Amino acid sequence: MTFAAGKRVVVVGAGIVGASLAYHLSRKGAQVTLIEAQDIASGVTGRSFAWITAAHQGPDPIAPLRSAAIEAYHRLETELPGLRIDWAGALSYSENTRQTTAQRNSAALLSRAEIIAREPNLKHPPPYALYRAEEGALDTVQATHELIAGAQALGAKSVTQTPVTGFVTCNAAVRGVETATGTIEADVVVLAAGTGISKLTEMLNVSLPINASPAIFIRYKTQPNRVQGIISSPAMEVRQAVDGTLLAAEDYLGDTPGNLPADIALRTAAAIRNELHGVVAIEPQTVAVGLRPMPADGVPIIGYVPGVAGLYVCAMHPGVTLAAIVGRLASEEIIDHTISPALSACRPQRFFPTAAKS
Questions:
Q1: Which helix (H) or strand (E) holds 72?
Q2: Among 177, 190, 179, 178, residue whose Cα is nearest residue 151
Q3: Separate counts of helices (H) and strands (E) for the chain
Q4: Of the candidates 55, 20, 209, the residue with the CA atom closest to the CA atom of residue 135
Q5: Which of 69, 75, 89, 118 has the most CB atoms less than 10 A away?
Q6: pTM above 0.90, yes or no
Q7: For residue 352, with 0-12 CB atoms within 10 Å meaning exposed, 13-18 middle and 19 or more buried, which class applies?
Q8: What are phi and psi of 101, to 5 degrees?
């Protein structure tokens, strides 16, 4: 236990990122209160395809974070036996898969025969595909509840249906949050409320450019065991849950006629039928739009906000992938004052030119 153990920390947002923060902070001895405006995992966390992947095309300023993400989840599995992650691997392919292999050095290049052996229900297996055996997926709602339960076992408190209405401040420092039911005092307030972070920081006259990046998440009722791992192709991005539910992710194309989420769900169902053997019937059960928090430059925003002591922000698009590693590294910064080089590209200072120069 460090000299800073016992520090009062309020975490705002009970999605998977906030839950991971609450758990890791509690493990370090912090007095944690997790506060959520609605229900646990009620935002984008519950509307996520939940692919745990370290892959990224092009220059990647957060490569150190991605490379540590999968190991961080394996570590969590040893700490939280109830956490269920399906490490079934991910198969991806496009028209130029073979040519781009050099850019994806963590993947194995599979032949058509190897693809069929791994995904025997593919009707149109490509000549080549990339396969990452180390990747997986999880049930984000179950994982979030498991992390919160782990935090509560260590003394954390969890409050739902309680929006933050303001902040307690003193001498340009945040000293807690205001809610309709009262004040919660804190030494540090961590904002992990996704797209809601910008509205919260505006209460402190701080502007953070976090946009809502919509994506469509679909659950289908269909035949079990059609997909063994994760498949990402031009026709579909799918995986199958333990209960047989087929999960799919699609781009959001707006609310124009023919491109409504329900329309896309039907087109995707037809594509799945065309791509997989044995899909006798397929019916959309849930069609939801998840609003992913996307910083203006695409890079996560993680760290203390300049000019507002005691305010720490965690906003990122690959929230499911990074939740475990960011929870650990952020807790080390907040409690141990151990600055993480892996988070250097993520600092809020980049949006505050005066602070960046100082």
A1: helix 63-79
A2: 190
A3: 8, 20
A4: 55
A5: 69
A6: yes
A7: middle
A8: -60, -35
User: What are the chain's domains?
Assistant: 8-81+139-209+296-357 (3.50.50.60), 95-133+212-294 (3.30.9.10)
Asked if 131 contacts 89 with a C-beta cutoff of 8 angstroms, the reply is yes
pLDDT tens column, 241-300: 989 999 999 999 998 999 999 999 999 999 999 999 999 999 999 999 999 999 999 999
Residue with tokens 């965690």: 314
Can you give the C-alpha Rg of the chain in angstroms? 21
For 289-335, write each residue's pLDDT tens digit: 999 999 999 999 999 999 999 999 999 999 999 999 999 999 999 99
Per the CB < 8 A criterion, the answer to whether 84 and 336 are in contact is no
Bridge partners of 185, per DSSP, are: 176
Q: Which of 253, 230, 244 is nearest to 320 (CA)?
A: 230
CA within 13 Å, CB half, 173? 9
The Cα–Cα gap between 242 and 305 comes to 41
What is the per-residue DSSP string for 186-217?
A: -SEEEE--GGGHHHHHHTTT----EEEEEEEE
Bridge partners of residue 284, in order along the sequence? 220
- DSSP3 helix / strand / coil % (the chain, rounded to 5): 30, 30, 40
